[in-house]
Amino acid sequence: GAVVSQHPSWVICKSGTSVKIECRSLDFQATTMFWYRQFPKKSLMLMATSNEGSKATYEQGVEKDKFLINHASLTLSTLTVTSAHPEDSSFYICSATSIQLKGMNTEAFFGQGTRLTVV
Amino acid sequence: KQEVTQIPAALSVPEGENLVLNCSFTDSAIYNLQWFRQDPGKGLTSLLLIQSSQREQTSGRLNASLDKSSGRSTLYIAASQPGDSATYLCAVRGGSYIPTFGRGTSLIVHP
Hints:
The complex is a heterodimer of chains A (119) and B (111). Helices cover 0% and strands 50% of the residues of chain A. Chain A is built from no helices and 11 strands. In chain A, strand 5 and strand 6 (57-58) form a beta hairpin. In chain B, strands 2, 4, 5, 9, 10 and 11 form a 6-stranded mixed beta sheet that branches. In chain B, strands 1-3-8-7-6 form a 5-stranded antiparallel beta sheet, with no helix packed on it. The A-B interface holds A 1, 6, 32, 34, 36, 41-44, 46, 49, 91, 93, 95, 97, 99, 106-113, 115 and B 31-32, 34, 36, 41-44, 46, 49, 51, 89, 91, 93, 97-104, 106.
């Protein structure tokens, strides 16, 4: 299957600073990337959908000015948590897909996630 | 809006038992359904992907079935082992191409 690399796998930052999380598709062009957040013992909640070259579409209740998503190329999307606070501590995971992957055009591939701790 | 439900929420069994995990979804217009495994503090590991035209998929001791018309999928784990302990998530992909997840089943297999 296709590979999605997410970096960093974990990060600790001070309250008020910004943190950038990268999601890369290594062997295919990801036309669409999804960003999820997972609270402890909860399921993955979709935060936003980003299409290459377009502004991200945020889910209701997700602050777009706080969670900045950039999808400037077909292999890279970034999520920046701005002015992070302890309540932003969570597990963030990206998913990439491409309608151009022959025979795999309906499968989504997931990164390994980023554990963010804001102190 | 698609809603995905997984039952049971938690399961604790002795080693060797055969298990059935359930996943149901409200909108049957899906492209596929995918089962994942998540170890504590880790990302997702894809186990099985069933396309909407398929009825089941098998990988080793795992077998997943799909009944799209009734909005149900089951993950069957044969001869469970302690190493199978993890959270199992199902995700459904519909017309929006956005995977929608259930809350997962937390499985503990004790020796």
